[in-house]
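Q: I'm writing up a methods section and want to include an example of the input and output format. Could you take the sequence below and give the corresponding predicted structure tokens, formatted cleanly so I can copy it straight into the document?
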Amino acid sequence: MRSLLKQLVGESAIYGISGIITKFIGIFLVPLYTNVFEPADYGMINIINSFFFFVGILVVFALDNSAARWFYDTEDPEDRKKTISSWFWFQLLITAVVCSGIILLSSFLSKKLLHTSDPDLFIVSAISVFTGILPIIVQNWLRMQRKAVHTVVFSLLYSLLTIGLTIYFVLVQKSGIIGVFYAVVISNSAASIYCVFLLKSWISIKYLSGERLKEMLRFALPLIPTSIAFWVINSSSTFVLDYFYDLKEVGIFQLGLTISSAVTLFTSSFQMAWGPFAYSIIQKENSKEVYSAVLTAYTIIANFMALAVALFAYELLVVFTTPNYYDAYLVAGLLSFNSTIYSYVYIIGIGNGIVKNNKPLAVSVLLSALVTTGLLILLTPLFAKTGTAVSMIIGNLIIPVYVYFSAQKRYHIPYKIILAIALCGFSFGLYLLYLLIQTNVSYINVLIKGVLIIGYIISSFVALYLWDRKSFEAIKRFYSNLKTRKNKV
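A: Here is the clean output for your methods example:
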């Protein structure tokens, strides 16, 4: 098991390097943007991004998930090419149809969603969706082949190009909001040129298989309403806030969400490595033991990240933004924990993926969407962006709970679930405790935050000792070996 976990950690670390650099650059741009864009401008960008996130769900059709599952059914390169080629040609057709419709309706959409008569933002964004097809497929294709370094290099260069072009259009050319989307179109187009050469033998029309496509669509079908419901849970809040308040409130909420996304430095790199890794060890004798250990380790680290970002969200806003945005600190703190919730589904729901049954995930997300929608309508008018954040957290919690019980019935894995729940509750409780005891003196608040973080670390190891002695001893051996190596050096 140790070698398998070491492999997962190594791949996650490689993906994490890309995520850390990209996120750092993104955060570095925040102070520049906050001096160029008003909160209402941020709100407008978020409205567009949320809308096209929904469009992305429609055009991808959940085939990224299906492709990953069918890819590992065989070692035959020719058969694998059927999977990738079928995915590509189907998505190309769907994207062309949907984006053409958006361009035709761009004036209407601008008036209804952005309160402006300028259709250019929707036209440019629609083009960016079409030009982004190949980069999405290539990044998934590289991960399926466990080419972590190549994936990271490609993703990093792709991100750097987008960021560099954004700086050019927004800060140098002063193109305004549309400059953000010009940058995406150009970077997508440049990346697509590289992707064509990289993937040309895999997307040849001769490998397009109607039978394979039907199988993949049948597997993906339950995920379509799931993905739409997922959009409701995580992105509909933008439109609810705009309806009850204004674009300024949306913009401050968006910045809080951006700050909280620092947690995804860890969660996203883990998710990129986890899927291919988990499916590739299905036949291993100790695979269930590995899955269980991963949940425990992930819970400890993810909650540490969430707590740290939540506690220091205000300081991050002070450093990287202007006073107009400081009010986003509470949203950032709450959503830091929300950033980790859905990630648990990848681990505790792996049993459903192994038996190729996505229906439980679909049901859980639909239930979550219904609850989230009700809470948004109830809490947003009363508590504005804070109520929106709380609604998202409560709604998201339904998903891992439902998926856990359904997956265990189909493919039992001996997770230390009580330990995971205890760690999650404890870390969030420490954040709520800080909100109750914080003072008006900055340095005292920083001291309190440091004590709370240290308290979480100590408590985590105590809990690990009590509930998972095997993992605790493994960590001790790892630390002892590391210390020995350092002494030898």
